[in-house]
Amino acid sequence: MAELIVALDVQTREEAVAKIKDIGDAVGFYKIGLELFTAEGPDVVKAVKDLGKKVFLDLKFHDIPRTVERAVRSGGKLGVDLMTIHSIGGNAMIKAAADAAAEFGEAAPKILAVTVLTSLDEADLKDVGILSRTPAEQVRSAAYLAVASGANGLVCSPKEVGVLSKSLRAGTIFVTPGVRPVGAAVGDQKRVATPADAVRDGATHLVVGRPILAAADPVAAARAILDEMASVAL
Ligand code: C5P
Which residue's alpha carbon is at the smallest distance from atom 18 of ligand 1? Predict the structure, then answer.
């Protein structure tokens, strides 16, 4: 059964806690990204954990292996459940992240790799020296590298998850943002899928922000998405 993760794209710990309390028992998993973490630091992770929720710490590490290893260890000490790294950091960096996470045994944070940022197109890849691959080819090769190097899963767009989930080993985690229930505002997302499509294509976790956070009734919005996800599992 796929899990719903709500993106806490807010600026303060107070707003984050208020949103989580509003949503209540409907959602048990929250994503803390660069905006909120840079503003509030580890305290906001502790605040979310103290409310009994799981934390996806989405800081997309990309540095030398030793630094990433130590940053992942810091995340493990905070008790986060999912963390992100960039697969472009290479085999040694991914492996360092996976090894540091594994030190936490049963409580190890799962390491997810970002393949190619969805904001990059072929011209951008050429600018950074990836000359011979299309974004889709680069996503596939980065995904294989990440999983072969010890990552537990991938962050991928709803348009990529189908291909990747069929070609990577069972048990790989696929976290998919860009999810919009039918009729919801798309905002700045360009390539979206419905919750049911994403689950059908193999997503294990869906990340949803504005359709829940900005809803007049966030609990109803979350429950509608959960119902749609569950309808696929039946
Ligand atoms: O509000 P919305 O549902 O678009 O939020 C999606 C969340 O997932 C945001 O935190 C966004 O930064 C993140 N994300 C994304 N697309 C990616 C990677 C992450 O929308 N390719």
Answer: 177
